[in-house]
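Input record (one chain):
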Amino acid sequence: MDFLMIMRVVLSLAAVFGLLWFFQRKMARGAGAQERRITVVSKQGLTPKAAVVTVDTEGRRFVLGVTEASVNVLYETAAPEEPAAAPETPAKAGPQSWEAVSGSILDPNAWKQLSGARRHRRRH
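The corresponding structure, as predicted from the sequence alone:
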């Protein structure tokens, strides 16, 4: 009797988890079809735990105040037609401080920025 009850519970749990997995996969595919494009235009750290971030999405530009606990819209306007061109800097000039180094650990440009910042720090 105990064995049959255990088997029923195991089969019921397997059915429930199978349905959850199926619906999660189905919902994930639906969300991918309605993908929204968000572009981070700039980010300026204010403190170790707070920053001001400018993002473009769906033809709108938002200036956001971001902290550990919240995200607040500080300003909203129409996004410019063309993204602002980044000021050109000489290739040999590295970032002026460690805060200027940004990017993924897998991004080769981030490693170049880091080495440039280290060289700049040693000189000064």
